[in-house]
Every structure is written in C-alpha cells, then in structure tokens.
Amino acid sequence: MDSPDTDGIIAKRAGPLRSGPLSYIGAFIAALPDLYAADKNPTGFIAAVVAENKCERLQQRFLQRMAEVPLPDVAVMNYGSMTGSPALKRALCNLLKRTFVDSPSVRFKSDNMAVLSGCTACIDALAFLLADEGEGVLLPTPTYAAFDNDLGARAHLRIVDFELDEDRGDIEGQLDGAVEAARARGVVVRGLLITNPCNPRGTLYSDDTIRSMLRWSLDNKVHYIADEIYALSVHADGVTFRSAMSVLYEDLVGRGEVSAEAAASFFHLLYGLSKDWCASGLRIGCLYSDNAPLHEALSSLAPMASVSNYQQHLVAGILNDEAFTAAFVADNRAMLRESYVALSDGLARLGVEYVEAVAGLFLFADLRPWMDEQSIEGEDRLWRSMLDLKVILTPGTACKAKQPGWFRICACCPRRPCARASHAQTRRSLSQRVALIRSPGFAWVEPAAVAELLHRLGRLLRS
Amino acid sequence: MDSPDTDGIIAKRAGPLRSGPLSYIGAFIAALPDLYAADKNPTGFIAAVVAENKCERLQQRFLQRMAEVPLPDVAVMNYGSMTGSPALKRALCNLLKRTFVDSPSVRFKSDNMAVLSGCTACIDALAFLLADEGEGVLLPTPTYAAFDNDLGARAHLRIVDFELDEDRGDIEGQLDGAVEAARARGVVVRGLLITNPCNPRGTLYSDDTIRSMLRWSLDNKVHYIADEIYALSVHADGVTFRSAMSVLYEDLVGRGEVSAEAAASFFHLLYGLSKDWCASGLRIGCLYSDNAPLHEALSSLAPMASVSNYQQHLVAGILNDEAFTAAFVADNRAMLRESYVALSDGLARLGVEYVEAVAGLFLFADLRPWMDEQSIEGEDRLWRSMLDLKVILTPGTACKAKQPGWFRICACCPRRPCARASHAQTRRSLSQRVALIRSPGFAWVEPAAVAELLHRLGRLLRS
Q: Which of B440 and A314 is assigned the larger pLDDT?
C-alpha cells in the first residue's frame, strides 16, 4: 500500500492525504507568489477559487473592535473548557437567537454549544462521533468541495452524493432512493448534511424542502447536520433566511410531527465566523446539538482542536455588542449584493449563464457551451485553459456537479476599495479592453481584478 | 456494541470516548464549583491534579506583553497557512535555537515547523500520520496520563508501555525486549515517545540513554518522538537540559553513526507554550520534523486544528523579544524551584518519599506505606480517601507506574502571591495546625493551598 517514495516513513492511511484537502489546492498554492495586483502585478493570477470574505473595510472594523474589548482576566492563560469558554458559548447562542435562529420555539442551552478551531474541526469531530468508518453521509450536489476531506480524511466516512430536485417534489422519496443506492453499494447512511444557504449555488432551500428533509431524517434516525455558515450572507433584497433549527422546533416539534427526543438526538447545527464575519483567519467554528452522549464523547476529542481562550474572549466581546453586530451584518449584506451584481452583470455581458444567487460569496456559472467536449475531461481542459490565462476557478466536478462544465466563481483577492461595474460595457467590447469597474461602495473584490477576470474569461470564451 | 443508553445516537467508536480524556477527570470537573480558596472557601477541593503553570505574576507579564505587540495587518483575518504562519514558525525555530536546541549542528528549516492547537493536537496528528490503526507506540513508564487519549482516542494506536531502567544499561536490549513483548501480543511497534524532562517524575534522561534510544530508533526505522514540552522548566541549580535534537545531530549524525536521511524521516520534536510559558489557555503547540511526506499529509489534517492567525501574530511578537523571553524563563525557573522546595520539604516533614525532581511542575510521591494493600485497588482506596479530604492527586496507575501507590502532586490553584515554606514546621505539628508558607517570591501555588494540602495529607497519612 505504501507508495514507493514514502518507503514506510509515514502510515499507509497518510498516503492519500498527501495531495492536500482539495484537488485544485496545488494550483492555488503555486499561484500564491504571483497573485494579481492591478498596480504591481497586472499579469498575475486571479485566484477566484476560495470562498473567503476578504472585505478589508469590514475586516478592519472587526480588528478595531477587538482592540476595544477590555483586557481579559489572567484566567484566559489557563486551561478552560476545551469545548469553548462559557462566555463565548453564551454569546454565540445569543447571536444566533437574535439573528437567523430567531424563532421563539427554539431554546438554546449554552452548555450544548461547542466551539472548536473552525467549522472544519466541528465537521471532522461530528463525522468521527456520529458514524463509524465506512458509513455514509448523504450530500445533495453540487456541494462544498472540501467535504470530501472533512468527512473522509480522518473520520473515513463515505460521501453519498445525490441530486436533490426540489421542483420534482417527493423529497422523502428522493432521499429513500439515495439511501437505496448507497445500500446497493454496501454503504449504511447515518447522516444528511445540508449546507443552506447552498455552496456553490448561493440559493436557499424552500421551507417545504427543509421540513421534508428534517422529518425524513428524524423519522429514520439519520443525523441531520445543518451547515448554516452562510446564514447571514443573504444579500438579495426581500429574501430572509430561516434556520433549519427554527423550522424543526416551530413547524415539526411544535406541531407534534417530530418528538423532542428525536430532535435532541439527531439534529446538529454548524456555524462559524469565517464567512459572515470576514474572519476565516480566526478559526472559530461552532456546533450546537442537544445530543448529550455526543458532547460527552466530544470531551475526548475537543482538546485536539480547541481555541485560544484569549481569542475567545475577544470574539465573545464583539458578538455581545448588538449594535456592532447588527451594523456589521447589514453592511456586509450590502457589500455582498454590490459585489454579486458586478460579477453577475459582467458575466451576463459575456453571455455566460449562471444560477441566480441570493446569498454567499460566489456564483455558480455554466461554461458548458465553451467546452470542447461534454465530459469531465472537457471541463478539466477548460479549467486548464483558464489556468493558462492565470484565472483559477473552482471546477464543478470538485463540487460534485451533476454535469461537467460548471464553475464556482469566488471573490478575488482585494487589497483596495472597489467599484461598481460600468453598464456601458458590452460583451463585444471586452475583447479589446478591460472593463473598468468604479464605485466607492463596492469593497468586496478588487474592481480591477473583477474586470481583469471578466476580460480574461472573455478572451477565452470567444477564442 | 452500542451501550443501551446511547441507542444508536452516536457512533460505536464514540462510545469509549464518553468517559473523557482522563480517568480522574470526572472527579476534577465535579470539584470545580467547590475549589479551595483560603479566604472564601477554606474547605474546598485542592485539585493538585493538573500539570499547569498558573503563576499569575508571569501570566500577567505575558498578557501585558501581548497587549504591546503592534496590531497586525488585516491579513490575519484571512485564511493563511493552516500549519501556522511563516512568522510564528520562524519565531519558534529561533526560540528553540537560542534556548534548549542550541547546538550548532542543528539546522532548523522553518517550513518544517508546524503549529497546531496545542501539543495534544500535534500528537494526535502525528499518531494518525505515522502509524496505522492498531499499531504500537513504545512509552517508558511512568508517563503522562493523557497519552492514552492522545494516541488512542482518534488515531487508535496502542500504547506499548515498558519499564526503562537506565541504571541497568543495555538500553537497546530493553527496547528490543519491549518490541518483542509487543509482537507477542500482535502489535507492530512504529514509534517511541519520550517525554524529557519526564512527566510525572521531573527527571532528565542521561545523554547516554537518549543517544542509545535515538540510535536504536533510527536504526530500526521506528519514529522517535521527542516531547520536550518541559524543556525550559528545569529548575535545579546547575542542571542543563540538552534536546534530543542536539544529541541527534551533534553526537550521531555529526559522527556518522546515523544517516541524515534517517534523522529527517524518523525524528520528530514536540514543543508548546502550555508549560514553560504559563500559557495552556492559548492552545499553541508545535511539531518540528524534516519528514516531507509527513508535512504533505498534515496539510489535509491541519485545517481541523489550526490556530487563530491573530493569536499567532501576538505570540510571534513575544517570542521574538529575546530580552523578554530570557527574563521570563529565568524567573519561571526560580519560581519553580521555590515551589518545588516548598512542596518537597513539606512532604519530607510528613515522612513522604518522592523522586527528586529537577524540572517540571510536579513531583512523584511514594505513598505506598499508606496503602492498606499493595494493589491497584489499594491505590484507588487511598486516592478516594484523599478525595474525601478534598485533595485530588494524579494516581500513579493512570501514569502507568510499575507499582501501585505512587501519586503525582501538581501545583494547586493559585489566586494570590505565594510564600516560602516555614522550615520551623515539623511533621508532628502538622496534625494540629496548617503550615503557613510565606515569601513574596513564591508565586506558583497559593501558599495556604500548599499548606492545606500538606495538612490534609498529614491527617490522612497519620490516621
């Protein structure tokens, strides 16, 4: 089993991990020393491949607010609860309660909140504790590309990906079908992992769908894992996000359709600061569950992924500031909307179709018409053609998209205030010149980078 | 396999983790709401069971110095290297180089340093990546009680504990014997984990022993894991600690006894801030290894245990301050010495024998004369008798001590400046009154807590 070059110097199970957590991470890392900058490196790589909210204006605001949090007691230097400080657990429960889990039917017990080193650590721990090696987790596609690593690298779970067609209805039947197909491959399904808002599409599941999935999971003793890390990144006007936890307790437990016991045992909520709070570098993820044995077992794994008590103190201080957090969320939404409009308008002018997004830091674009062949190989060649133009997007196949040819386009690396797309630009004019995007309000992505991205894509798509 | 009360709501592999990372952790957690405080709760629990340097004076100094580190660039809010920031990796390499790994033969490559969420996370990752499920790690006893969890909970390695008798010589033969015994039980040995300075004894291995163990490991392609987390907590006058990494490169690779390739593949150094820097709450551990495939594979696991970039920035700033770190280490050593003298003198007055320690935050005491029976059950009864007096020590059996009846005694919970032991106290006088310990320089443990600990032990041992 050892590959010849490791020659027994690492474990057999470490071998498959050597390629890193994402298929495209090598290209991204290779690009890092040569990233695009309008002024200093205009021919560098545009790495629109990582779902990261890098709005510097908001990040500065967060950093500044951290500096204003009163110094902690010396006790932060000591061991504390490895699953997070009581203060941060309470702050997170309160934050959720006053934002996207605002149903009066939901009762958080802050002891049942766990804080670990990023949502990735939470998923890894959940995977290890809720299912045994080789068991399966249902995952509707397209999905977040890193779930393969999060569920598989150490917990050794198997992903059972399936298409969930909301328009078709009969959600329960579709889930039964996926379980049936897994069983035929010898895989026992233990969990259903739902990222809502959806990554990579930036869409929301309907309440009906969430209700059906919850009812089905809890009836079948399948763990429902609600990944709502983009909950506060809904940017479309008039669209509101309703947490699966609200749906569960208001619509199902409240009406007697699901028992409180089943809800306590089989429902788990994931959240974190990386996306909605522009703070992926702080490595704060959290997991809420009323499953008591899960928390008991987590006490043995949490020491391997706990968060600095000092960092927790600073974050608790910020999250408890209701005025700050409300303004931050509102400004982030406005910024995300402007950013989305700039990117989507530019793509439309290039004749590129995409899934209309209402949330998230990305959109999912359909580049099938530009593939030389409708296949994974065709997608890979198109991805490499973009790489030749120093554009890195997330290939749909990595997101387990049902058809090859889709690409997730994320924010580019911003270093300056950004701008709105000029609507005077037409698709044809892009072949000659860069579309300059200007507006002081648009601060998510570097405007020149978006323009350059569109320009390079335009060159490729018309070639 | 499911225990009846979990009823399939967690994985089978999660079941054994429900009791927590340490056999005695339940008693400790139960005691937390009722901890001893000389003024407010003089009858509370004295939990001398956690190896934690809680010297408030030093902790305040560390916190104060963190507050003086210049604010970071906004980039700390973004994803960075999941194995630690380049700045902190360099700072750690430089710290090691100018403190306990100061041999000119050692060449650190800072890219080969990895920073994770505490030394526990580093051990967990190493265990997963260096050996496969069911394989064994040699561990000389007595040892750190949490290795069972660190190596076993998720990596599912087996501990092969054995007595290492330095006086007997023929270290290689003793190691061969341990491997032979493991093989007889069907366990293949992949690693040798050496904590030096030793926990729980506070002693150092001789250079001869370290050389023999290194030579044997590298000759046999067994991973040598040097856990040197107490390296700067050597407190005895005239004693200096020499890192296994210095021994390896100076005495073995330098003299051609071991190849540089074997050293690069099979030697791994663990360190962290929890002990020597009074900073267990910051969750900073590190791992140095020149094994390239190990680092490649670690890239898949590191996102599950990475440290806040903001916290890393602050720590790098402190560790780069040579004057600050030198003074901190010197003051910590003096404080540890005073603390050790107070505790050991008090025990001697009680007629308790102990292993003379030169390092660490604890000593290993021989309470065998006070057991009603020389057995694990006898040790457990003695431990429970102490618990009845609200004294919690680490039972030697949890440290895999060869004979029942040994106990590790750690620092008590300090909340105030502490004092030196009064040498006027005698063993007999302790039955009547608390030995008051006074000295402004002694700030590790609360003086009244040490006195009260000795008083309660005295009551028990004379009963």
A: A314
